[in-house]
């Protein structure tokens, strides 16, 4: 470091050479004075190095330099490795980076990284060493740590063992200022598990596998769970607005529209590097932040162009691979950044450049593709038409970054990506415009991802615009909703049509081509909700002030199949219809047995509450609740049974059904007996009260000299002749009855 003006020795200054009072050089000094580096934020301490001598030291420094330069810039002369009196290194080194941000990145990405098979790096900031190791904070004498007694933790999956033995599901309700978790009792009142006031400030949310219940506060996010509903984790992200989990509950991303501001006294979880950021990705197990990100700025319009309309806020902004090993973020129109977990380093140190990219989505499962030995994670993306280049849809494999399939499209207005739950199919809903751009239609480009070469099937028989699409979970059928009128905000929602599609029958395990099954015209429906187990689907009209229809369909109806559907893999039947005025949300329970619909006070204040239906559409329960805000079923983790065990259960389902039906009958009869006993008890209590009052009245009459039965005495007084004994009289009455009558004509 070059010395500053203040560090020159007094003898180096000759006062006779110039008069400071006469010459003002403050502007020159301010411009050219070299400032000393006051802090050590750019320094890190690298521990865990192998022990080397002076001859081996240069080789180790060069080898270490390669690792250090993966996250920033440093040089050999900026690495200081202390040596001991015996001529061997002390197994640590001081490293100076070009900026504090690079030093922070080194601590985050290089800590616990293997240097070789025997040595693992430990990287810390030099300022942290000073902060935690200064005088007075560390005792000179070793004191063995106090080992606390083992305390058994609560089982976070205890909700899977229903105490009633009926396999019930739980749900959470947010109404007023109260949040409660309940067991579903079908027609009966839900059984309360826990109910707390002011449990959250904005909303509640289950984790994907149902382990945690999330509450959101101005100070951050808290996770609750276990039988006693204690706080399990806490993530201090101030003024957090939204939360998203990774599929396997390993990581959490939080977002706030306010950039993070770190106070001078510091923050309990975040650091100075997180200042000004909006997103934070956390490790749920340790509750520590892995990395933070700022909000992306909207690209500015080119000179001479009209200002670009602000895009719709993307959520989730970070999307996770099915195995939780990667998380990716879209840089609109430019690239996709894929980060490896848990280190959160950019895959191959560079973003995947895709010119014009609009959207992308990960496959929801690890797809086992035909002809591929190693199964990687897949994501799909699409780009619009740019100049003379067509629009494009692509499938990319990660981490190899290989494009396994791409498809060019023309006359594209918009596209939406829809994965099937097992990643077997990808449907790209393509809205196409005519040459005049006055009319619009939709085609479905279906990628058969598991088949060799990923063939693409086109469904181009749709003449109208598709406004909703939904795959059958774990199946190969889908439902669409179409309209002939332009999509947009209108005073009266347009009439819609609901169309069902399924594959043709094919030999063996092959899946045939997708064919149209049925179309229902002149509907008001705008939403599709499949059962998580497939087969059953609810087509609903939500957030509509004029209609609130709920149609329950079965696609594997066991009745007679129409002749036109003989070659198709579905038999459609409308099971029931229902109406829930003002319905805003619909959700199936994890078992696929029940459907909840509710009207949320967040969207309107009319008839708030919820309805509960079985899968056939029969209403089980209706409850109106003032200021009802939220209803959410508790998810369940995937079954632990193998496919063979599941098949065995299906084969013996009738035997299990008899047991369950008997248990249901006993439960209903026991409930009836309880009702009868309660009524009998009330009746006996009433008879006892009546007898006590009668005796009390009789005693009072005797005290006051009143007759015991005043009514009888009054009758005797008015009819004295009845008071005397009368002889019994027998009265006989003769009645004549004609048994038969005939007429004869006498000549």
Determine the structural class based on helices, strands and strand pairing.
Answer: alpha+beta
Task: Work out the number of β strands.
Answer: 41
Helix share of residues? Answer: 10-25%
Major sheet characteristics? 5 strands, antiparallel
Low-pLDDT segments, ≥5 res: 1-22, 301-307
> Gap between N and C termini, in Å?
160 Å
Protein name: Eukaryotic translation initiation factor 3 subunit B
InterPro entries: EIF3B (IPR011400), eIF3B_RRM (IPR034363), Nucleotide-bd_a/b_plait_sf (IPR012677), RBD_domain_sf (IPR035979), RRM_dom (IPR000504), TIF_beta_prop-like (IPR013979), WD40/YVTN_repeat-like_dom_sf (IPR015943)
Subcellular location: Cytoplasm
Pfam families: eIF2A
Give descriptors for this structure.
single chain, 747 residues, 4-stranded antiparallel sheet, 5-stranded antiparallel sheet, disordered N terminus, alpha+beta, 14% helix, extended
Write structural notes for this entry.
One of its GO terms (cellular component) is eukaryotic 43S preinitiation complex. It is found in: Cytoplasm. Component of the eukaryotic translation initiation factor 3 (eIF-3) complex, which is involved in protein synthesis and, together with other initiation factors, stimulates binding of mRNA and methionyl-tRNAi to the 40S ribosome. Pfam families: eIF2A. With 747 residues, this protein is α+β, with helices and mostly antiparallel strands. Helix content is 14%, strand content 31%. It contains 7 helices and 41 strands. The strands form 10 sheets. Strands 16, 17, 18, 19 and 20 form a 5-stranded antiparallel β-sheet that branches. Strands 2-3-1-4 form a 4-stranded antiparallel β-sheet. The longest helix is centred in the C-terminal third of the chain and has 51 residues, at 653-703. The radius of gyration is 39 Å and the shape is extended.
């Amino acid at each position: 470091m070059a010395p500053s003006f203040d560090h020159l020795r007094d003898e180096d200054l000759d006062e006779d050479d110039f008069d400071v009072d006469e010459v003002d050089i403050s502007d020159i000094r301010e411009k050219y004075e070299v400032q000393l580096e006051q802090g050590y934020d750019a320094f890190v301490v690298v521990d865990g190095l192998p022990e080397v001598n002076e001859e081996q030291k240069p080789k180790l420094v060069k080898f270490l330099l390669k690792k250090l330069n993966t996250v920033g810039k440093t040089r050999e002369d900026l690495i200081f490795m202390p040596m001991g009196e015996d001529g061997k290194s002390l197994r640590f080194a001081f490293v100076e980076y070009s900026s504090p941000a690079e030093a922070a990145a080194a601590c985050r990405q290089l800590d616990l990284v293997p240097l070789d098979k025997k040595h693992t790096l430990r990287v810390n900031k030099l300022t942290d060493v000073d902060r935690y190791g200064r005088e007075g904070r560390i005792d000179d004498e070793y004191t063995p740590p106090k080992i606390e007694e083992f305390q058994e933790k609560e089982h976070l999956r205890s909700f899977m063992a229903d105490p009633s033995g009926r396999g019930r599901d739980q749900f959470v309700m947010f109404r007023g200022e109260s949040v409660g978790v309940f067991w579903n009792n079908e027609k009966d009142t839900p059984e309360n598990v826990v109910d707390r006031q002011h449990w959250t400030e904005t909303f509640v949310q289950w984790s994907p596998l149902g382990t945690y219940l999330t509450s959101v506060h101005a100070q951050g996010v808290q996770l609750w769970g276990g039988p006693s509903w204690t706080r399990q984790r806490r993530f201090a992200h101030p003024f957090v607005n939204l939360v998203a989990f990774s599929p396997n509950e390993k990581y959490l991303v939080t977002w706030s529209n306010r950039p993070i501001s770190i106070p001078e006294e510091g923050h309990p979880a975040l650091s100075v590097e997180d200042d000004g950021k909006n997103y934070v990705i956390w490790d749920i197990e340790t509750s520590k932040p892995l990395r933070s990100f700022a909000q992306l700025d909207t690209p500015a319009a080119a000179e001479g162009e009209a200002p670009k309309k602000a895009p719709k806020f993307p959520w989730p902004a970070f999307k996770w691979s099915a195995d939780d090993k990667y998380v990716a973020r879209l840089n609109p129109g430019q690239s996709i950044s894929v980060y490896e977990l848990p280190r959160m380093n950019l895959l191959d140190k560079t973003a995947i450049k895709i010119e014009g990219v609009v959207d992308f989505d990960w496959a929801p499962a690890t797809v086992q593709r035909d002809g591929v030995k190693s199964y990687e994670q897949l994501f799909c993306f699409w780009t619009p038409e740019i100049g003379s280049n067509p629009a494009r849809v692509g499938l990319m494999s990660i981490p190899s970054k290989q494009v396994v399939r791409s498809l060019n499209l023309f006359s594209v207005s918009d596209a939406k990506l829809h994965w099937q739950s097992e990643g077997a199919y990808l449907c790209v809903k393509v809205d196409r415009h005519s040459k005049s751009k006055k009319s619009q239609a939709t085609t479905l480009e279906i990628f058969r991802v598991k088949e060799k070469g990923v063939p693409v099937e086109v469904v181009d028989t749709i003449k109208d615009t598709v406004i909703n699409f939904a795959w059958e979970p774990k199946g190969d059928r889908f439902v669409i909703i179409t309209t002939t009128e332009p999509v947009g905000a209108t005073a009266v929602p347009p009439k819609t049509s609901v169309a069902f599609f399924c594959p043709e029958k094919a030999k063996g395990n092959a899946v045939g081509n997708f064919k149209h099954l049925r179309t229902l015209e002149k509907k008001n429906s705008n939403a599709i909700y499949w059962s998580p187990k497939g087969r059953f689907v609810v087509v609903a009209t939500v957030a509509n002030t004029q209609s609130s229809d709920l149609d329950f369909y079965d696609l594997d109806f066991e009745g007679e199949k129409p002749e036109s559907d003989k070659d198709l893999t579905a038999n459609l039947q409308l099971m029931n219809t229902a109406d829930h005025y003002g319905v805003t949300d619909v959700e199936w329970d994890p078992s696929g047995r029940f459907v909840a619909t509710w009207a949320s006070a967040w969207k309107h204040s009319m008839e708030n509450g919820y309805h509960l239906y079985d899968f056939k559409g029969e209403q089980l329960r209706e409850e109106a609740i003032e200021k009802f805000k939220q209803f959410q079923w508790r998810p369940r983790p995937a079954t632990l049974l193998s496919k063979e065990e599941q098949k065995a259960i299906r084969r013996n389902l009738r035997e299990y059904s008899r047991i369950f039906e008997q248990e249901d009958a006993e439960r209903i009869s026991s409930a009836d007996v309880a009702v009868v006993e309660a009524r009998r008890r009330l009746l006996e209590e009433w008879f006892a009260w009546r007898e006590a009052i009668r005796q009390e009245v009789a005693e009072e009459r005797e005290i006051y000299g009143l007759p015991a039965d005043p009514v009888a005495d009054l009758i005797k007084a008015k009819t004295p002749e009845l008071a005397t004994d009368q002889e019994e009289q027998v009265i006989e009455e003769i009645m004549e009855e004609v048994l038969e009558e005939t007429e004869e004509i006498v000549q």
